[in-house]
């Protein structure tokens, strides 16, 4: 047997790396959904009100998210169907309609947070009133949604994610972080008095229901041959790496938000939370220098625009799935789904008196809907009729059920609080 030359091994390794880099996109497109303005509000509330104590929720949520996003993408790769389409095809009609209706409401709540965050950023940067800013963000997002192909949107959003990440690395790099307390906070569960609504909002902001629908749809934009088992196996392998890589980036950025708030805004256990993103930016200015306010507002604007695009795509995906149709911005089902997500979200903003609370509670509502989406996903991916030979293993089903029970338990705890 001939041994491979060093050059052949290097070339194969290089080809694998290039293939993976070409594949990157779906995970990062989803990542921007959980570093949106709703996350900003939830994380700043967590850090400013409870210091480093709620960092564990970001860790737990990200671990759950990796499992759930990979499972959702697994469904898309193995079946060629998104979560919404699969529910329409394999679940009773009435149950399917109820599930997807709640998912649409979650997408609207998400879009509201995204648009509102972008509008707050416009107010901070250019003193544009929030209601007018919301309309401007809405128009821009609809233009992007109706004129851009997947590839163009992916590149745009990857750029936004990179800019947001560098923005927060800049902030954390110049803030005085208590890294000992941070390490403990990342791994030790803690439930300080009055923290349950914030814990649920952090959960909903990271494990966003609409992202599970979106990932199972955009993973199909690669247009591979579903009849070829070797192609499916390769896509499953690359998809997991893409998901893991992207979710770790999301964990780092979400953690950086809490670290930043804990280091600069936490008031020694007083329990007082910063309840205004504008105030948060102004409070950072004297502590982190004159550039901090601009960096904060610019990153918020980029997060609002990019995550609004993905929220609209998710709404289009869910609504199209109700009619057992794939996402296609040229079809009337997808167009209506995008409009039914974005326009009501913008209208709701007109009636919100306290924007920061609107952001936090919108994320908490996502956590309330989350068990419905998770149990639906388990039902579909655990079915051999749906997944064929790519059906979930017993170990994966057990892990998914544990996640569903934890999320449901946290929701029940919120009711008692």
3D architecture notes:
The longest helix has 37 residues, at 229-265. The chain is mostly helical. The chain has a single domain, classed as Amino acid/polyamine transporter I (Up-down Bundle), CATH 1.20.1740. The chain has helices spanning 6-23, 26-31, 37-50, 55-79, 83-90, 93-126, 130-147, 150-174, 179-187, 196-206, 209-218, 229-265, 277-288, 290-322, 332-349, 355-381, 384-387, 394-416. The protein is built from 18 helices and no strands. Keywords: Membrane, Transmembrane, Transmembrane helix, Transport. It is found in: Membrane.
Defining key terms:
Amino acid/polyamine transporter I; 417 residues; globular; 80% helix; mainly alpha
Number of helices: 18
When the domains are counted, the total is 1
Order of helices and strands: HHHHHHHHHHHHHHHHHH
In percent, how helical is the residue content? over 70%
Mean pLDDT: 82
> What's the alpha carbon Rg, rounded to whole Å?
21 Å
CATH C-level name:
Mainly Alpha
Tell me the quaternary state. Answer: single chain
CATH superfamily: Amino acid/polyamine transporter I
Unreliable stretches (pLDDT < 50, length at least 5) are 8-14, 17-25
In the CATH hierarchy, the third-tier topology is known as: Amino acid/polyamine transporter I
| CATH-defined architecture | Up-down Bundle
Main location: membrane
InterPro entries: NRAMP_fam (IPR001046)
Membrane topology: Multi-pass membrane protein
Organism: Dorea longicatena
């Amino acid at each position: 047997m001939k041994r491979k030359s060093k050059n052949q091994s290097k070339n194969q390794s290089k080809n694998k790396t290039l293939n993976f880099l070409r594949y990157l996109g779906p995970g990062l497109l989803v990542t921007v959904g959980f570093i949106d303005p709703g996350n900003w509000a939830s994380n700043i509330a967590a850090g400013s009100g409870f210091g480093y104590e709620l960092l564990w929720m970001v860790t737990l949520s990200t671990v759950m998210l990796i499992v759930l996003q990979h499972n959702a993408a697994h469904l898309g790769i193995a079946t060629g169907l998104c979560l919404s389409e699969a529910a329409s095809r394999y679940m009773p009609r009435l149950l399917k309609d109820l599930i997807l209706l709640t998912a649409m409401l979650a997408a609207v709540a998400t879009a509201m947070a995204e648009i509102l965050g972008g509008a707050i950023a416009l107010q901070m940067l250019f003193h544009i009133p929030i209601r007018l800013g919301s309309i401007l963000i809405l128009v821009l997002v609809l233009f992007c949604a109706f004129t851009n192909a997947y590839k163009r949107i992916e590149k745009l959003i990857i750029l936004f994610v990179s800019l947001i990440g560098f923005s927060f690395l800049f902030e954390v790099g110049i803030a005085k972080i208590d890294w000992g307390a941070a390490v403990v906070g990342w791994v030790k569960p803690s439930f300080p008095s009055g923290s349950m609504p914030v814990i649920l909002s952090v959960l909903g902001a990271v494990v966003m229901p609409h992202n599970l629908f979106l990932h199972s749809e955009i993973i199909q934009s690669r247009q591979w041959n579903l009849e070829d088992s070797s192609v499916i196996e390769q896509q499953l392998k690359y998809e997991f790496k893409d998901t893991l890589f992207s979710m770790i980036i999301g964990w780092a950025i979400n953690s950086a938000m809490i670290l930043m708030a804990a280091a600069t805004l936490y008031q020694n256990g007083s329990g007082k939370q910063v309840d205004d993103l504008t105030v948060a930016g102004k409070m950072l200015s004297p502590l982190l220098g004159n550039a901090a306010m601009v960096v904060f507002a610019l990153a918020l604007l980029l997060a609002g625009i990019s995550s609004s695009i993905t929220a609209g795509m998710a709404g289009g995906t869910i609504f199209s799935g109700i009619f057992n149709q794939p996402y296609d911005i040229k079809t009337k089902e997808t167009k209506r789904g995008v409009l039914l997500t974005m326009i009501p979200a913008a209208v709701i903003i007109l009636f919100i008196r306290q924007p920061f609370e609107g952001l936090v509670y919108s994320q908490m509502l996502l956590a309330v809907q989350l068990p419905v989406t998770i149990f639906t996903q388990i039902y579909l991916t655990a079915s051999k009729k749906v997944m064929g030979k790519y059906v979930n293993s017993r170990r994966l089903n057990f892990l998914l059920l544990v996640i569903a029970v934890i999320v449901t338990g946290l929701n029940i705890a919120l009711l008692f609080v």
